Amino acid sequence: MSGASSTAVLVVVGAGPRATGLLERIAANAPELWDGARELRIHLVDPHPPGPGRVWRHEQSALLRMNSMAEDVTMFTDESSTIDGPVRPGPSLAEWAAQFSGRGPRHAPYSEPADPEVLAELRSLDGADFPTRRAQNAYLDWVFRRALAELPLSVTVEWHRTTATAVTGPPDGPQQVRLADRAAPLTADLVILAQGHIGSTPTAEHREHAAFARRHGRFHLPPEFSADADLSALRPGEQVVLRGFGLAFIDLVALLTEGRGGSYRTEADGTLTYLPSGREPVLHVGSRRGVPYHSKTRYQLQGPRPALPRHFGPEAVDALLAEERALDLRRDVWPLMAKEIGFGHYHELFHAHPERTAVAWADFVAAYDRLGWYDDDMAALVAEAVPDPADRLDFEALDHPLDGLAFPTPGAFQEHLREHIAQDVARREDPEFSADLGVFLALLSVYGQLPRLVAAGRLTARSVAERLDGWWSGFFSFLASGPPGFRLRQLLALSRAGIVHFVGAGVRIGTDESAGTFTATSPTVPGHTVHATALIEAYLPGPSLDRTEDPLLRDLHRAGALTEEVIADPTHTHRSGLLAVSASNAHVIDPSLGGPHPRRIALGAPTNSRAVAAFARPRTDAPAFRQNDAVARAVLRALGAGSVTSHFSNDEKEVSII
């Protein structure tokens, strides 16, 4: 910056929910930290509309929905937020939608969505409904416009509907951000990378399968965002293997069934029957666990909200970091995580369903607090206090529901898994099992504490690779990020109709050159092999700087101006594929500088801050909101001080994201 009177310029690459949340925090903190006599010009660069961005754009199938209830989606800080900036409460998606039916107050700036189908959905939206992604698009568009309206007059925002392709510039000087559709770059004092979820080119295994498909005239789809997938080449009745049983699978099934003209009929007993259009392929699904993600709960807590964190909070993390030895997640950290999750479970069970417990809560929790999760006395305490084993928290049974099971025929397994899914849906919609919601809330609390351990570099490399990024990430999603119950009821109807077939756990994908087919096998049904002419990898692309589809990150990576997170110790090296940023202030680690680049910041999904979710459930002290606030305050201070480099190098402690 040339002087105190000059205009400060911030370029934000990406204009989706993460950038919108940052903009909201800039607006909230500007009254304290920005001198209104100077101008701050913010450039947003994104080919998709600001607010929703690409993932939540309006131009996608109306069949695609969120996996959260409308009342559980917010972009705003609240009384739970542990931030230095001001808390600026705002409506959840449900509260915002209520204005269109007259059930709630109007929220400025008020305007009705232009799409009449979206407006009709919002007018009838209940807090316990799972909205379409188009409804979330409308909410995020409004949040963006509200953030703009709350900025001081000295702060202006300009959207560039294009792609950023490169950023260059010295650490002590202006940055040049090149755009795909213009010769002249944007000149910035600071650049923030907030691209959100990014695709990647196929892995070696996927390239081999693609080559097989080309040789034999077959169909292959590598990991892809469901809304972007081209499924038109799949023929009616074609046998298709899908590897993956999570949310991407759920979306793909909707597109290949209802999206092709099928429909559902509710029978007198409440069950669904699928009415095929005749254009559907036949789908065979398998995965590591062999079962779909657990259905989302559709009820409120029946007892008081548990005070979390209790056993795995900042003090527990401090104690772990005080250990002189390297930490193993399963040995050192998981017992505290499990105890925290167990506390959420038993707090709700004892308070909401005391008739299913045998001791007073005060007595139980006093003993629970002093015992370790794996102590023999803990098992005895739970057995005495909770008579029915079905009311006890069993992580192993949850994690491996098909372990030790084998079925003589595919038909026998279909019946078993249908019953498993039906029981799961019934449980997740029955308040009698509201302890499951206590587990969910505790999972969110645990999730928010883990980034500190990774940032401190105290977990072993193998622990991060196999336990944190591997097992824990999958286990968390399996329990906490499943589909709405109605999607699983639809899956049951599709199974009964012969459209969907279940393959089993530990699925293995192969190829048969002589037949020109993909194959799928599972030890769940020994000796059974599925042959298919199409293979879909039904999960999202994993992070990979080496294979990223983002042109700016690809350019910086090739130039050696950023680096992948690499965690190494004497026994293991873990390359996470994530963009390495400073733990203290989210600045991009530039290998050519030997440390953080003072003028480049990166937020969200592609980074190793692991504070991914751009929006959150209310009253959960969301990590992303904490990071947004800290970075917004640091940016305003740095740009206001007139010396970006010296500010960030001397005052990093002010922007801790933990």
UniProtKB/TrEMBL annotation:
Coiled coil: none annotated. Pfam families: NAD_binding_9. Residues 11-197 form the FAD-dependent urate hydroxylase HpyO/Asp monooxygenase CreE-like FAD/NAD(P)-binding domain. InterPro entries: HpyO/CreE_NAD-binding, L-asp_N-monooxygenase_NS-form. PANTHER family: BLR0577 PROTEIN (PTHR40254:SF1). This is FAD/NAD(P)-binding protein.
